[in-house]
Amino acid sequence: MPELPEVETVARSIAPLVGRRILAAEFRCLRVLRGGDPDRMAARIQGRRIAAVKRYGKFILLSLQGGGYLLIHLGMTGRLLLGGPSGKHTHAVLTLDRGVLLYDDSRQFGCLEFSEEFPERVAKLGPEPLEVPYRDFASALRRRKTRIKALLLNQAFVRGIGNIYADEALFRAGIHPLAMASRLRGERPRRLFDAIVAVLTEAIAAGGSSISDYVDAQGRKGFFQLSHRVYQRTGEPCVTCHTPIHRVLVSQRSSHFCPKCQKR
DNA sequence: ATCGGTACCTGCACGC
DNA sequence: TGCGTGCAGGTACCGA
Fold it and tell me: Residue A221 pLDDT more than 90?
């Protein structure tokens, strides 16, 4: 489900939890828990206050008062919900001094991880696409001998872009998903950079894309799916030239593009 | 050191 | 109705 705009929306919707105390933590699913024993992890979290909520790429990091971090990744189907009934895929329940926070994830590709130090997984990520200076982005592009679509999905290159926004940015920039990153010339790197910034900014303003079941922590849907120009529009006419949208696999991921507007 | 391919898990839409 | 197939926003890990 969630890429940078969706995770940003979720992070904003749980921002009011700053200052709340975690009275109890219950972890029900070993698979989504990183770094060991559920009861020990619960014991280390219990009683601490949430000092900050911050997004890093597709991760949400809760900093706890007095040290310690709870790192959350939503995977494909993860949801953080403020209150609401716990269901068959609810894997964690944080009882707060006011309210409750649930972690729900049917496919179990997401994860929760507690660490005393700033998490290594976050430290290894590339820069934020909305913060990286253009010249850093352009010089990194030049050094990569891989397909541009695969590179945009690589979280060590830039953090937060997933399949939807990679396809949408490449369409806006007029670049074929199979183009080699290091061989983009002339205006193309700049157009790609600007397209990424524009599509992410617009998507955040729309509360993200709700493809099937994505909602923020208050259960609100996003509406950026209404603005998708290529993603999951295979066979439909291109909004610019009316050519049917094509689909190819790049690194085993569906990639949607206009064969006329996006040249290699 | 970088890659591309595969595995992980559940649910849904589709054709038969 | 049910069954098999393919597809889905994710990352981690493997061998080349």
Answer: yes
For strand B, the positions having any atom within 7 A of a protein Cβ are: 2-12
Question: Residue A226, CB, less than 7 Å from strand C?
Answer: no
Q: Rounded distance, CA A171 to CA A256, Å? A: 9
- Of the three residues A91, A123, A155, the one that is the final residue of a domain is A123
Burial class (CB in 10 A: 0-12, 13-18, 19+), A139: exposed
Given a contact cutoff of 8 angstroms between Cβ atoms, the answer to whether A24 and A42 are in contact is yes
Q: What is the pLDDT of residues A151-208, one digit of tens each?
A: 999 999 999 999 999 999 999 999 999 999 999 999 999 999 999 999 999 999 999 9
Mean pLDDT across A12-22: 97
Do both A178 and A84 map to the same domain? no
Does residue A166 sit within a domain?
yes
Question: In angstroms, how far is B3 C1' from A153 CA?
Answer: 14
Locate A217 and state its tokens: 């922590």
A122 touches strand C (CB under 7 A): no
Q: How confident is the model at residue A264 (pLDDT cuts 50, 70, 90)?
A: confident
Distance separating alpha carbons of residues A83 and A244, to the nearest angstrom: 44
- Cα distances from A36 to residues A23, A33, A70, A119, A123, in angstroms, run 21, 7, 13, 15, 21
Q: Which nucleotide is closest, CA of A154 to its C1'?
A: C11
Chain C bases near protein Cβ (<7 Å): 7-12
